[in-house]
From TrEMBL:
The keyword Nucleotide-binding applies. InterPro entries: AAA+_ATPase (IPR003593), ABC_Ni/Peptide_Import (IPR050388), ABC_transporter-like_ATP-bd (IPR003439), ABC_transporter-like_CS (IPR017871), Oligopep_ABC_C (IPR013563), P-loop_NTPase (IPR027417). It comes from Heyndrickxia oleronia. Keywords: ATP-binding, Cell membrane, Membrane, Nucleotide-binding, Transport. This is ABC transporter ATP-binding protein.
Amino acid sequence: VEEILSVENLHVSFRNQSGEVNAVRGVNFSLKKGETLAIVGESGSGKSVTAKSIMKLLPKHNTYIPEGKIYYDNQDLLALPVRQIQKIRGSEISMVFQDPMTSLNPTMKIGKQIIEGLKKHQGLTNRVARQKALDMLKLVGIPNPEERLDAFPHQFSGGMRQRVVIAMALACNPKILIADEPTTALDVTIQAQILDLMKNLQEKTGTAIIMITHDLGVVANMADRVAVMYAGEIVEMGTVDEIFYKPKHPYTLGLLQSMPKLHSSRKVPLIPIPGSPPNLAKKQQGCPFASRCPYTMKVCHYFAPEKLQMTDEHSVSCWLHDQRTPVENKPVAIGG
Ligand code: SF4
Ligand code: MG
């Protein structure tokens, strides 16, 4: 399948009081046409920063990208002037955030907001844009769309507001939708409805989705492939089956063990991963997970593990799976 986006060796740094924080450290992935790629990890792992880099939405005053390329449509987005990015944003690549109000203007009627977007990005006339806005509201399941065009954002519930945002994001038939924790703020039932909606719309439109989430339940429901991020790096990547049934990285295993069982009505106590991620303001030596990993070996403290290809889609960065690690040094390895 054709690749439509390719992120190569992306590094993102912040400056704050304590100096420089390397929030994203050499991230590589590609997105295929029509697929859903989940980027999963704890907060602070760099997943949102990675997503925002694609759309140049990082705060300018304290963020910079020392290295990396993001190819879309044969051009490096990182090298494009803001004007051109603005053209792509919303029409070819859209974003949905956790808080729908990020994308909505509280003082403007919903209908007007959608219509303005359609006029700007697709050059539609008012009448055609209005009809399209109506169609979109219907498509995302907003009751009485005709009346709701004249309502303001605060007159919608949280779930309905996120539906409106999804309608806006998909109105221009983008090739890519980047969804950053789109359902995290919603209650579980609404969450499931919104995810179903996104899946249905994706089937109709063929839009590829990058789904940023800390929730493996969302991943299991939505993703074709999964990138697991830790401390600014992708530590494991694979198909959803490979990640859930043949996890190779101890961090992925930890995430899976801390996840409530799918299809279980009973709330099973979660096993959180002990410890906390490394301070990314400091220079990293060795494996970033070494201080929390139950399998840490001596080598892990000194040398960063290299990316190993396990199958066509499945890669992992961990010394446990590296042939160069002497067998006698290996603890009982996971996943063989
Ligand atoms: Fe654990 Fe070592 Fe693998 Fe890092 S490289 S995840 S510390 S076993
Ligand atoms: Mg985030």
